[in-house]
Amino acid sequence: MEKVITCFLPASHTGDIQPTILALKQTECVNQIFVIGKESAKDATNWIVSDNFASTNTLKQIAAKVETEFTLLYTKTLPLEPGHNCLERMIQICMDSNAGMVYSDYYEKKDEKLMPHPVIEYQDGSLRDDFNFGSLMLFKTSALKEAVARMDSNFQFAGWYDLRLKVSQHHKLVHIPELLYSEVELDTRKSGEKLFDYVDPKNRDLQIEMEQACTSHLKDVGAWLAPKFKAIKFNEESFPCEASVIIPVKNRVKTIGDAITSVLAQKTDFPFNLIIVDNFSTDGTSELIHSVAKTDIRVIHIIPERKDLGIGGCWNVAVAHPLCGKFAIQLDSDDLYIDGSVIKKVVSAFYEQNCAMLVGSYKMVNFRLEEIPPGLIDHKEWTPDNGRNNALRINGLGAPRAFYTPVIRSIKVPNVSYGEDYALGLNISREYQIGRIYEPLYLCRRWEENSDASLDVNKMNTLNFYKDKIRTLEFWARQKYVKSGQPV
Question: pTM of the prediction?
Answer without folding.
Answer: 0.90
